[in-house]
Specification:
This protein is an all-alpha fold. Helices cover 73% and strands 0% of the residues. It has three helices and no strands. α1 packs antiparallel against α2.
């Protein structure tokens, strides 16, 4: 069900963006707005594709849920302070 929702949202965004470009911007010679809309559509598709790649990696166990970084190890070794102290 969730997979269907994501596919439809991406499809609606792409179709709406395309219709906005073809029906609104190009007939009025707003080429800058059309170009910005094309860039936005491409960025949304790339972000969703990369997110799906990461989600599949996490779900298959090939990628850790939380990356072990230097900042995370420093935070784990720091003493815990409470409000009462």
């Amino acid at each position: 069900m969730l997979n269907f929702v994501w596919k439809k949202l991406l499809q609606f965004q792409s179709v709406a963006g395309y219709q906005n470009i073809v029906n609104n911007y190009l007939p009025k010679h707003n080429y800058l707005l059309a170009g910005i809309s094309v860039v936005m559509i491409i960025m949304v598709v790339l972000i969703v594709a990369d997110s799906i790649r990461v989600w599949l990696g996490i779900l298959s166990g090939k990628m850790p849920l939380i990356k072990d970084t230097k900042e995370a190890s420093v935070a784990q070794n720091a003493p815990t302070k409470y409000l009462s102290e």
